[in-house]
Every structure is written in C-alpha cells, then in structure tokens.
Amino acid sequence: MITFKAIDDPRRTQGKKHQLPTILSLSAAAILYGMRGYKDIALWVQSLGNKARSRFRCRKRNGRYEVPSRTVIRNALVKVDPEQLNQALNTWNTQYGYLDESLAIDGKTMCNALDGQGRQTHIMSVIGHESGHCYTQKKWEHSR
C-alpha cells in the first residue's frame, strides 16, 4: 500500500468513502489471486473477512470494515493515471522482488479440505523463480 500513496487521487472529494491506496491494494490483490474484470474483483473484495479488510486499511464503521463497491473500484481504476500506477508497481517490485527476477503466482483448490459449510479450501501462493522463496501463501475464506 505504501507505493500506492504516491498516486494522485483523480476522484472528486465529495462522497469519497474509501482511500485510493486501499482500492488499488484490494484490486491488485484480487488480480494476483486470479480475478479478472470489475465484477470478479468486487466479489473477491466482498468475500474478505473483517481481519483481512482491516489489513487492507478499509474504512471502519459500526465495528465492521467496509469495502468499496464494484462501481467505486471501477471508477477509481478507470480514472487513475496509468503512468503513476506503473511507477508504483515498479517501486514495489524493486523493494520486494529484489531476490527474484520473476514470481510465480499460483492458486490451488485443496481436495478433501472442506470448511464447516462443505466448501473446498482455496490457497494462493507467490514464489520466486530464482530463489524458490515463498513470499506469501494465503487461504481464501468464503464470507457466505
């Protein structure tokens, strides 16, 4: 999120409930998780639990963290300066991708690993090609 703070927010100040770095971080995470399109991104964001929403620094209201809607996500992504976004992503890659020239991002559905509602467990991993270092591995928890 730190590198996204350098991007100018092109949205009007009126009615802004969600910070641009939060929207960009949520969108980037959803895309890394394999989501394609505004609807998929928004559904993935909506599926996040309260703890994950807190980590993305979502807006807190009545003890619960709120996430942006599909319209808010779309409008922010359409309006953001692509050059500034590219610079922010390159800065992130320079800071955190220094061990590896490329990363493998992979998602798996775990066979026979069911939650309390009988849904399968999904896991995403980010692994460096050169180092073999696992940068992150996260379980996707359904919100419903």
Structural notes for this entry:
- The chain has helices at residues 20-32, 38-47, 50-55, 70-79, 82-96; strands at residues 59-61, 64-66, 103-114, 120-128, 134-140.
- It is of the alpha+beta class.
- It folds into two domains: 2-96, no CATH class; 103-140.
- The longest helix is centred in the middle third of the chain and has 15 residues, at 82-96.
- The chain is globular, with a radius of gyration of 16 Å.
- The two termini are 27 Å apart.
- The model has no long low-confidence stretch (mean pLDDT 85).
Summary keywords:
alpha+beta; YbfD_N; DDE_Tnp_1-associated; 144 residues; single chain; 5 helices
Task: Explain the layout of strands and helices.
Blueprint: H1 20-32, H2 38-47, H3 50-55, E1 59-61, E2 64-66, H4 70-79, H5 82-96, E3 103-114, E4 120-128, E5 134-140
Antiparallel strand pairs: 1-2, 3-4, 4-5
Helix pairs in contact: 1-2, 1-4, 2-4
Task: Describe the structure in brief.
This protein has 144 residues and is of the alpha+beta class.
State mean pLDDT (0 to 100 scale).
85
Number of strands: 5
Principal-axes shape call: globular
Helix content: 25-40%
Radius of gyration: 16 Å
DSSP helical segment count: 5
Strand content: 15-25%
What's the end-to-end separation, in Å? 27 Å
Provide the domain count: 2
- What structural category do the secondary elements indicate? alpha+beta
Q: Spatial order of the strands in the main sheet? A: 3-4-5
Flag low-confidence runs: none
Major β-sheet, in short? 3 strands, antiparallel
Order of secondary-structure elements: HHHEEHHEEE
